[in-house]
Design a protein that fits this description.
Pathway: Amino-acid biosynthesis; L-histidine biosynthesis; L-histidine from 5-phospho-alpha-D-ribose 1-diphosphate: step 5/9
Main location: plastid
Shape: globular
EC number: 3.5.1.2
Strand order of the largest sheet: 2-1-3-4-14-13-12-9
Subcellular location: Plastid, Chloroplast
Number of helices: 18
Keywords: Amino-acid biosynthesis, Chloroplast, Glutamine amidotransferase, Histidine biosynthesis, Hydrolase, Lyase, Multifunctional enzyme, Plastid
Strand content: 15-25%
Radius of gyration: 23 Å
Oligomer: single chain
């Protein structure tokens, strides 16, 4: 998870100070490290090891809450590193590196923790690095560099080469090839684990003795290293479901004989992702509920005009995780009206969900600069930071990205001040999704408009053979003078790492994705595209992946309503995610 470097003051003041204690109006101070009490029934038995404490090196960037929750879920306590001596005295040290290589090294060097970390590892003490926690072990990184790393392992961290059409960042569930016994990776060959990164280290003669597994994404790169008690992985075990929990359990409690045996895996490559989306808002009674729109209209007009209530967000997210969802996405669909950091229930949904859902969580809605009623200004970066600290792995930007792209296309200038640019600079572009909400606009000829058109599969109401896709803002209420194609190209240049491509015309119709639109956009950009809107049958998922270059498909209503034939595929009444088996084989 990488981003351009920050100044030292930016790292210290912004990334290390949670916002919510200043915002809470609940009469007490929120503790970001305290779990939701309602979730304790899901915790496993306490660790049987004599010392059940794990030392966590959290230097203050990104979503480390997921690692905390996974460790607690497995029955261990956590001690946070406050000073270099805490590293040297640790019995087990976990370093979940998140953010920019240069920014991380800056913090570690300033606080004297780089030297302590090197001493700890050189003494062969139990260590697990995650993602950037692996990359920092190498000599240097080309990311906004060169930037010197800890220099413990030979090798240079470089960016994936996208010149041949490879989509960067590498986001999704991929497999690893075990090259030597590491203990913690037992049974995971043939299983999918979750990656999200733009930079990687290549195997070489100089570092081959460290490598315990590799992964293929356009080329073979190092996915894990092992030497003695030292382990590090490029993927995210805390976001890899049961497979990831098994890895963490083996590292934390190597003497345990209770490690769950994983089923034999048959996966061999990057999977197409299926994402469950939960549109969240308050109903007319003030309760936070999951709802679903019909062309963005969420009210049941035949039933008192009430907001559709399809369930409670935390419970539904937990169920979809158990059923096999690759990711879960929350969209606060009234976020554009309200001050999101005042939306304590939505933040609490993230915190509680992340305690028992160990796949990636995305949240969107209202992420932009705000001024509250007292005149206090909050930047979009502060808003996003609180979402990350509450359990989000990615944030989704909608309306604000449209306005930013319009200004960029008009002036040709990247100001660096937009929410998209600020957040991707600090947290990396893989943490930023841009949500595009277009409406199909038919024309008789491509020459009729200044925007990119596509020849449509189904002609328009007056026989039009072409269409352009007009972008909208404010939940589809306002059309803007920019097309989906132009917007997608612009936000990629501004720092987006992924595009969530909706279609107002298809929303809630259950007739399939807009293949014309998805093909247009997925072929126009080099970042992953998530297809959304219109899924009504399993065939719609296979169709969108066979006919377009989409990396993932997202759906909502078809999962929430448990419609036939999706429901009761299993005798016990659970959703049988047949689509996951089907699509992961593509």
């Amino acid at each position: 998870m990488e981003a351009p470097p920050l100044s030292s003051s930016g790292v210290a003041s912004h990334l290390r100070s949670p916002l919510l204690p200043r915002l809470s109006n609940t009469g007490g101070t929120w503790n970001p490290r305290k779990p939701c009490s309602k979730s304790k029934k899901h915790l496993s038995i306490r660790a049987s090891s004599q010392d059940s404490t794990v030392t966590l090196l959290d230097y203050g960037a990104g979503n480390v809450r997921s690692v905390r929750n996974a460790i607690r879920y497995l029955g261990f306590d956590i001690k946070d590193v406050q000073k270099p001596e805490d590293i040297l005295s640790a019995n087990r040290l976990v370093f979940p590196g998140v953010g920019a290589f240069a920014a991380a090294m800056e913090v570690l060097n300033q606080n004297g923790m780089a030297d302590a970390l090197c001493m700890y590892i050189e003494k062969d003490r139990p260590f697990l690095g995650i993602c950037l926690g692996l990359q920092l072990l190498f000599e240097s990184s080309e990311e906004n560099g060169p930037v010197k790393g800890l220099g413990l392992i030979p090798g240079v961290v470089g960016r994936f080469d996208s010149s041949s059409g490879l989509r960067v960042p590498h986001i999704g569930w991929n497999t690893v090839q075990i090259t030597k016994d590491s203990g913690i990776l037992d049974d995971i060959e043939g299983q999918h684990v979750y990656f999200v990164h733009s930079y990687r280290v290549l195997p070489s003669d100089a570092n081959k003795d460290w490598i315990s597994s590799t992964c293929n994404y356009g080329e073979s790169f190092i996915s894990s290293i092992t030497r003695g008690n030292i382990h590090a992985v490029q993927f995210h075990p805390e976001k890899s479901g049961d497979v990831g929990l098994s890895i963490l359990r083996k590292f934390l409690n190597t003497s345990s004989s209770k490690t769950k045996k994983l089923a034999c895996g048959k996966a061999s490559k990057l999977a197409k992702r299926v994402i469950s989306c939960l549109d969240v808002r308050t109903n007319d009674k003030g309760d936070l509920v999951v709802t679903k729109g019909d062309q963005y209209d969420v009210r049941e007009h035949r039933d008192g005009d009430e907001v559709r209530n399809l369930g409670k967000p935390v419970e539904l997210a937990g169920q979809y995780y158990k059923d096999g969802a690759d990711e879960v996405s929350f969209l606060n669909i009234t976020g554009f009206r309200d001050f999101p950091l005042g939306d304590l229930p939505m933040l609490q949904v993230l915190r509680c969900t992340s305690e028992n859902v160990f796949v990636p969580l995305t949240v969107g809605g209202g992420i932009r600069d705000f001024t509250d009623g007292s005149g206090r200004h909050y930047s979009s970066l502060e808003v996003a930071s609180e979402y990350f600290r509450s359990g989000a792995d990615k944030i989704s930007i909608g309306s604000d990205a449209v306005l930013t792209a319009e200004e960029y296309l008009r002036t040709g200038v990247k100001t660096g001040k937009s929410s998209l640019e600020q957040i991707s600079r600090v947290y990396g572009n893989q943490a930023v999704v841009v949500s595009i909400d277009p409406r199909r606009m038919y024309v008789r000829s491509p020459d009729d408009v200044e925007f990119k058109t596509v020849k449509v599969t189904t002609p328009g109401p007056f026989g039009e053979e072409y269409a352009w896709y007009q972008c909208t803002v404010s939940g589809g209420r306002e059309g803007r003078p920019i097309g989906a194609y132009e917007l997608a190209k612009a936000v990629e240049e501004l720092g987006a790492g992924e595009i969530l491509l909706n279609c107002i015309d298809c929303d809630g119709q259950g007739q399939g994705f807009d293949i014309d639109l998805i093909k247009l956009i997925s072929e126009a950009v080099t970042i992953p595209v998530i297809a959304s809107s219109g899924a009504g049958a399993v065939e719609h998922f296979s169709e969108v992946f066979k006919k377009t270059s989409a990396s993932a498909a997202l759906a909502a209503g078809i999962f929430h309503r448990k419609e036939k034939p999706w429901w009761n595929w299993l005798a016990d009444g659970q959703v049988c995610w047949k689509i996951f088996v089907l699509l992961h084989a593509l």
